[in-house]
Amino acid sequence: MLLVMAGLLFAGLAAFMRNLEAEALRGAGVREEVTAAGTIRPLADIAELLRQSKLVTVEVRTYVSSEISNESWRGGVTARVDAPARLLYGSDLSRLEARAIAYSPVAKTYLVRIPPPERIASEIFASDEEIAVQVGWLRLRSRAGEYYLGLARRALSDRAREVRLSAADAERVRQGTLEQVAAMVQSIVGERVQVQVDYDERGMR
Amino acid sequence: MRLAWRLKWSLLRLGIAAFLLYALVADTGARLARLQYASLPEFDYAAEIAFLREQGRFGEALMVADAGMQVQEGQAREALAREREITVRAQGSFLRRASDLGMGALSGRGTSLEGVIGAVAADFFVVGDVRDLVIEGGRLVIDGETDEVILVLSGIGLATTVAPEVDWVPSLLKVAKKTGAMSKGLAEHIVRAARRGHYRELMPMLRDVGRISERASPGGAIRILRHADSPDDVAKLASFVERQPLGAFAIHVAGKEGADIAKGTRKIAGAGDAVLEQTLIKAARKGDAGVGWLRKGGFKAMARPHLLVGIGKALWKGNAEDLAARIAAAIDPRSWWLIPLLGAWVFLELGVLMQRLAVRLAPAADGREAAPVRF
Question: Quick check: ipTM above 0.90?
Answer without folding.
Answer: no
